[in-house]
Amino acid sequence: MLKLLIPVDRSNASRHAVKHVIRRAWGGEALEPHLLYVARSRRDSGVEAIDAAAELLERGGVPYVAHILYGDPAEQIVRFAETNRFGGIVMASCGLGSLPELLLGSVTAEVLRTSRIPVEIVPVSPRSRLRAYAATAGIGAGLGLLVYAALN
């Protein structure tokens, strides 16, 4: 059974990664999904993010385990995955940071850069990517970035 770590937050991209794991499970893969929310402070319980992802897994009939940690998200994700010997990390490819991070998300980019465990990047739909680009750079620049991303 493949032990997968799915870092979640309150974003649609995060839910997209969870749905991807559900489709893999329905496809016959023996998976042990673990949801992980990393809060930057103790005031942020993360319960809403975990609950949203858990509801998707429950509706899909996929058993899961949930975890909440505190600290720097990328650092905690990598540390938790390596310490607990996960077979993979599943994250979505959407973010609002600098250009390299725009395509992946700053946390996803850092996890991909530092993890020794395989990281599966789940592409977010072009419409979602367009919204992310447009929110950051305005619609004209967003369309230009989308074309650039499609060509590279």
Keywords:
alpha/beta, 20% strand
Give a quick rundown of the structure.
By secondary structure, the protein is an alpha/beta fold.
Number of alpha- plus pi-helical segments: 7
Task: Write down the Rg.
Answer: 15 Å
Q: Which H/E pattern describes the elements?
A: EHEHEHEHHEHH
DSSP E strands, number: 5
Cα shape:
globular
Low-confidence parts lasting 5 or more residues at pLDDT below 50? 95-102, 128-137
CATH superfamily placement = HUPs
Helix content range: 40-55%
Topology:
Layout: E1 2-7, H1 12-26, E2 31-39, H2 47-59, E3 65-70, H3 73-83, E4 88-92, H4 99-104, H5 106-114, E5 119-122, H6 126-137, H7 139-151
Helix pairs in contact: 1-2, 3-5, 6-7
Q: Would you mind describing this structure in some detail?
A:
It is a single chain. By secondary structure, the protein is of the alpha/beta class. It is built from seven helices and five strands. It has a single domain (2-123), classed as HUPs (Rossmann fold, 3-Layer(aba) Sandwich), CATH 3.40.50. A five-stranded parallel beta sheet has the order 3-2-1-4-5, sandwiched between helices. Helix 1 (12-26) runs parallel beside helix 2 and helix 3 (73-83) packs parallel to helix 5.
